[in-house]
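TODO from last week: model NAD(P)-binding protein.
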Amino acid sequence: MSSPTTNGSSSHVATTNTSDMEIPTIFGLPWVTPTFDPSVTDVVPTMHTSSYPTINPALNPLLSQAGKTVLITGATAGIGFAMAKSFVTASASKVIITGRRQARLDEAVGLLRQHAKELGKQTEVEGEVVDVLILNSVGEMATGGLCEEGGRTTVEIWAKLEANLRGPMRYTELFMKQGKDRQKYGFTKATAGLFFRYIAQRSDPEKMQVVSIHPGTIYSELWRRLGVEKSVLPFDDISLPADFVVWAATKEARFIHGRFVWANWDVEELKAKYAERFKQDAELFRFGVCGLAGSKLHVIQ
């Protein structure tokens, strides 16, 4: 089977013999590698798959988190743990991590303390008043449609809402109730995008900065449980979202306050191309519900 791909004016053809290949399955169905339209996803010329100097706290002093306390939910492994390591690298004064299982939490804390020691950092893996909140914890993916035979029940779907909406809302509520005289930078995952858009629209980014991100395609325990091998997809390196959130928690990222962005997008190109457009377009890269009124498209808020 052959499939042509184009890159600018050059053309390349890759040929693969699939007759003897074992096709992986997910939920009992054959796995089909997803395809994306680059004109939609590649909003800047450079798409990264791993960290790079601008967002790397070990290389960019502008990303220093010195004096700040960081709270990361779901940080005992995977992306959350990698984010915690990046904030330690960025000299955060305190890093607080949460997790569901005490044993894994204790192990993660030990590893982070060792990481801080190796870097010569004075980071404490504990704390009280939070400057940076990262909502990384989500409920496991529900399979099957709500109304399909064998699909999830309302009770099961509601349990996912508890993890993916109520939990982040509660953390955000407590975060916003902290001392009003402290400078705060908030960073959130796009689990409850509309809720965080609402919060962002009513927040001064000088006091609380809100950003939602797509972390990239990162291989994790969930993929393993689904039976997907790492070789099936061109997975991104976990350093990409880990360092991206450190950048997003600084004033360097203030121009994307309230927006939803991909960690893959080059941040310098993103700023050069969209910073001024964001000032003119309130809906660009924001969650919304669109409706029609007359001949014009309006966003219902």
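Done. Confidence is low (pLDDT under 50) at residues 1-21, 180-191, 293-301.
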